[in-house]
Amino acid sequence: MTVALEMRGISKSFPGIRALADVDLVARAGEVHAIVGENGAGKSTLMKILAGVYQPDAGSIVLGGSETRIAGPIDARKRGIGMVYQELNLVPDLTVAENIMLGATPARFGFVRRRALSDAASAVLDAFNARIDPSALLGSLTVSQQQIVEIAKAYAQHPSIIVLDEPTSSLSEHEAQALFHIVRRMRADGIAIIYISHRLREVLDLADQVTVLRDGQQIDTRASDGLTAGEMIRLMVGRDLTDIFPKRVVPIGDVVLEVDGLTRAGAFSDVTLNVRAGEIVGLAGLVGAGRTEVARAVFGLDRAQAGAVRVDGAELVARTPAQGVAAGIAYVPEDRKRDGIVPSASIKDNVSLPVLRSLSTAGWISRSRERDLVREQVETLGVSPPVIERAVDTLSGGNQQKVVIAKWLAARPRVLILDEPTRGVDVGAKADIHAIIGELAAAGTAILLISSELPEVLAVSDRIYVLSEGRVTAELDRTEADEATVMLAATGEAAHA
After folding, report:
1. How far apart (Å, rounded) are the C-alpha atoms in residues 41 and 20?
2. What residues of the chain score a pLDDT lower than 50?
3. How do residues 50-66 score in pLDDT, each as one tens digit?
4. Under 8 Å CB-to-CB from 34, ≥6 apart: which residues?
5. Partners of 410 in the beta sheet?
6. Is residue 385 reached through a cis peptide bond, with omega within 30 degrees of 0 on the bond before it?
7. Which of 43, 33, 41, 47 is nearest to 223 (CA)?
8. DSSP-derived pairing of the beta strands 81-84 and 66-68
């Protein structure tokens, strides 16, 4: 295969941090080359150098056989490099077609050629077999459809190299299959694809070559044939993780959380479930099934039109977040950057935020009690680095997630709702978070877990409720649940089957 890209001896340092040290990468046309590693391993820095966002301190980049200096993102795009970042870079108030052709909008005499714009976008979507209306507003689409539009935008520039950074992090296993079809189509078109993902199973399914980074160094590059997830984990973290999803068996107590006939028009209907002390209950379903909407309504963020929520038998009447917190409910949201943290604030300020009243006397916050509380949570959850004055947005994704969890654990909740608790975190941080969940269950916390990663739900949960189109379609004990059973219920086919 033709070599599309060579990155030779790339090194990059920031003040006090050696981000990359002498890293090599070779990507070939018509090949998927995966890059894996823990958060902070250097994956994003390497790709930002390729995109022209950073300049390397040492090393060279060769495109099409010629050594090249990439001056910036616009220069990278002109040289045939397409970037699809984990955080979608789209405009919600523009149409699908306008987003796909952004930066290359067909125009004449200063006026947009609407027919040409629609035809060009439709041609790209047709190539992907994507049933998306080019005239629809981007903001009206599901997350999975927006992800397809993001990739289509990069594809429309006719790149020779496309970088996909965690493209399935917001998708369920079922919806990810549509994206895999697109990746294989681009590979068949001869595009060199650099694929970054924490989902090791999809890496093994898609990749031809795998490069492992650890602490800014290239540990190994090898063909995916014969490579196992266990071997990748050992290379990534420098140790064996024999159980990525550890299940700790603990005594199950009385019912703590009861949800009875909860209904919110257009989101979910007649949802009934319960969670016992020490129990981990999974909430499974496809993206759009209503899982997050149910969690938000239980916590009080959204108002339900019917149904009841009870904690330890006492009904939450007003169902506001303040009442939810007062009743002992904590909610770790799906989007930690938007809803879970104050990014520019310190670890200390984030963790103490929900419990400032309990740390105050006559309106004055006891700073010593605050520091002691935060240090205890940081130590318990293994936040790294354990510097409580450090800004949260300087931490890795896994450590940011630990801060979100620490914030609510400081409130000592009776019920903990975890919405996608391991999304976008590396395998080492994932194992740490699962161990924390197990310890919370052992302490008697009732846990409601939402995850689009089906193996996670199956391995960690004691029971599983499955939602399809806003309704509970199955309640499964862990002994009877498997991927096929859950997917049948999630697609609404269980009763039909």
Report:
1. 8
2. 495-497
3. 999 999 999 999 998 89
4. 194, 195, 196, 197, 203, 206, 207, 209, 210, 211, 224
5. none
6. yes
7. 33
8. unpaired
